[in-house]
Amino acid sequence: MTADGRPLTTDEGARGRTLIPGTWNLGPHTAVGGRRSVVVLIAFALRLRGLFANTFHADEALFASWARLIAVWRDPLLLTQPVDKPPLLFYSQALFYPLFGPVEWAARLPSLLASLLLIPLTARLAWRLGGDRLAAFIAAAVVAVAPLAVQFSATAFSDPLLTLWLTAALALVVPSPLGRGLGRGAARPGWAGLCLGLALATKYQAALFLPLVVGLAWLSGWRAREWARGLAGLAVVLAGGALWAAARAGGAGLAARPVSYTHIRAHQTVPDLACRLLLEKKKNNLTTQPVYATVTSQHLT
């Protein structure tokens, strides 16, 4: 059945990948393709100023410094750094430093791109869940102009990248409402598992969304073969993460020495920050760690 309740003809089924209403992979001359372009352009305009407007938050500076060490090949495995996050964000940021140099906005480009790609993915997910192209358009428009989405898109945080991979996983879990046998309309369990794994490689909190992904797959009628493919896609990323962790064995990290960055806040003045770092130095001798030594030297001079 089509979205307007009309039976799907054989000819339409054969050409389903171009005739499915509401999908955002239609040709550039269609009305849907035009609306897609307008929404993405509006989203880009809203996000562009923030890319250059603000200085780094303390966490952004930390993540960008790790990416910089990777980009210049000084410490590609971050062996000297007490890393307490999964690595995908840092390696994504490191790709842009050779292209644009050591500037703040280069570290924010992965988040900006993820935020823009999230818009058509949201429309795709909404279409697959409801089969209504108007609802898909509204969902995409809301994401394009939502203040929180706009604000976080021009940051070096991991949240935009995490949201992109989770949305992609959900969109790939659900088959098209027109049926399973329409090419791109079918579920893609292997790719869904891969995207879920990439979300975990971006931020560990992606595990909180595992029940949602599993539940949606169950409601979509996944069979044993689809579950196996989904687990295989997830295993590929988990294996890569395990290899990265094994290569870092013996380096600085949570297993060797737990570290907390919560005492550094962006709203604190330089004297406040310097006093707190001096107290930490006296208590734990933290200047032996490169991150704290760098911050201390920069704010005390």
Instruction: Give the helix level as a range of percent.
Output: 55-70%
Q: What is the overall silhouette?
A: flat
Q: H/E series, N to C?
A: HHHHHHHHHHHHHHH
Q: Uncertain spans, ≥5 residues at pLDDT below 50?
A: 9-30, 180-184, 254-267, 286-301
How far apart, in Å, are the first and last alpha carbons? 70 Å
Total number of strands = 0
Supply the number of helical segments: 15
Q: How does the major sheet shape up?
A: none
Average pLDDT figure: 79
Report the C-alpha radius of gyration, rounded: 22 Å
- What percentage of the residues does DSSP assign to strands (E)? under 5%
- Structural class, from helix and strand content? mainly alpha
Overview of the structural elements:
- By secondary structure, this protein is mainly alpha-helical.
- It is 64% helix and 0% strand.
- The protein contains 15 helices and no strands.
- It has helices spanning 10-14, 16-19, 31-53, 58-71, 88-94, 97-100, 104-130, 133-145, 147-153, 159-173, 189-202, 210-219, 224-247, 270-284, 290-300.
- α4 (58-71) crosses α5 and α14 crosses α15 (290-300).
- It is flat.
- The N and C termini lie far apart (70 Å).
- The model is unreliable at 9-30, 180-184, 254-267 and 286-301 (pLDDT under 50).
